[in-house]
TrEMBL record:
PROSITE patterns: PROKAR_LIPOPROTEIN. It comes from the Bacteria. The keyword Phosphoprotein does not apply. Residues 1-18 form the signal peptide. Transmembrane segments: none annotated. Keywords: Acyltransferase, Signal, Transferase. InterPro entries: Peptidase_M28 (IPR007484), QC/QCL (IPR040234). Pfam families: Peptidase_M28. GO terms for molecular function: glutaminyl-peptide cyclotransferase activity; zinc ion binding. This is Glutamine cyclotransferase. Residues 108-328 form the Peptidase M28 domain.
Amino acid sequence: MKRIFYTAMLCIAVVVTAIGCKTSPKTGNDKKSGTEKSLKEPVKFNRDSAYAYVRRQVAFGPRVSGTPANLKCRDYIVSELTRHGAQNVSVQTGEVKAFNGDVLPIGNIMGSYQPEIKDRILLLAHYDTRPWADSDAQEENRLRPVLGANDGASGVAVLLEIGRLLNQHKTPVGVDLLFVDAEDYGQASGFSTHDSTWCLGTQYWIENMPYASDSLPRYAILFDMVGGVGAKFHREFFSDSEASQLVDKVWSVAERSGFGDRFINKNGGSVVDDHIFLNKAGIPAIDIIETKNDETGSFAPTWHTANDNLDNIDPSAMQAAGQTVLNLLHNEIQCVQ
């Protein structure tokens, strides 16, 4: 994904998308949402398990789209989803053309929990890694692929751990897990707010979406770079402008779950990422991502460098992101269909 300067956003109109039930919730006359009541925390997110998922992905090497390592990672994700009870596990294959003319074979992976429930939440992350460490301080590293422990593996790890727990503890809503390819093959220069050179897998998925137009997920949450050392998650601009109610909801759950030191209720700038394309497709979507690192003021210092490795992964950051969303899911109220 690519950083967008906040000052460039001032002329953009703000459109807020509602994320609540379009019909009455299944709670009789109770008008409060589940997250406004006392917070239930029926299941614990295991940060050691999440770290093991990161370690396993990193062992494949850089997972650049179209490479053998990417295919191995794809097979691994499919295997883990199947092992932990996901239903309708599928790989959507196709080809996309990158900004430099490369034609990339891609595979978007999806698995569902409680597919019989029509009221659904979509969680997603990208599993590919950057083909070039073009932000590395050492020039000799800039044409080498990124290992992507944080930028790639951490979001996938959180999804896989959530999936493992969803198999053991059902939620009031159905949950779909989506692992997208070819997110990180974009052009580094420029600051367009509609930069379609990034998130190619998500754009392909949207063009061939498995949902009917009248049965889209209620909302979507993207996990990206959620494993950096000391990572804090500010309110990303496009998330706030398109789905501020969902941002409010998630950050409130985080605070009540004891992660107020990780989920900072302040603006953190803006990012071209998968959630932008989901919002444009009519699915309210937000991005949980580190965009205001204490050292850089932007992404983590390992972003698109040779240092994005296991040495710079913080399991407690993944726990904060994963536990928050697990608590959100378990405290949702199913909408009447």
